Amino acid sequence: MAARHFLLHRLRLCSFQGFQVAPPQGHRLWCSATLSPEEATENASGGIHTRCSDVEVDEPEWMDKEENIVRDIEPIVKLTRHILFSPRYKNGELLTMEDERAITENVLIYHPYYEDKIGSGLFAIMVSGVNDMHD
């Protein structure tokens, strides 16, 4: 994370957090064929936009896609929160078969090393607090 911010600072890119990555005002762009930010804003009627802040975020097609993603992810997040924060499980306690199956089918399949983690099968899944991992 720090390397990313260092690189953006080194390349003189600003406002990475708000997805408005643009060169600072008054500097030339890397390619001489592109317009400077000042020229792009002056020529806005020509349809050329080089700044990300000119992009309309609330477009209906993106809002529909975002709603579909949230609709798919919300039950998985609720299930995970319910298991982690419910009083049913204490720290170090194994999950029930039903919860273990739900976690395996809905959460672990998205892990980048799913095949390595699962292998020939799972023995058990247990709840573990974050503080235990740092000891």
UniProtKB/TrEMBL annotation:
Transmembrane segments: none annotated. GO terms for biological process: chloroplast organization; chloroplast rRNA processing. It holds the Pfam family DUF3223. Signal peptide: none annotated. One of its GO terms (cellular component) is chloroplast. This is Uncharacterized protein LOC106763761.
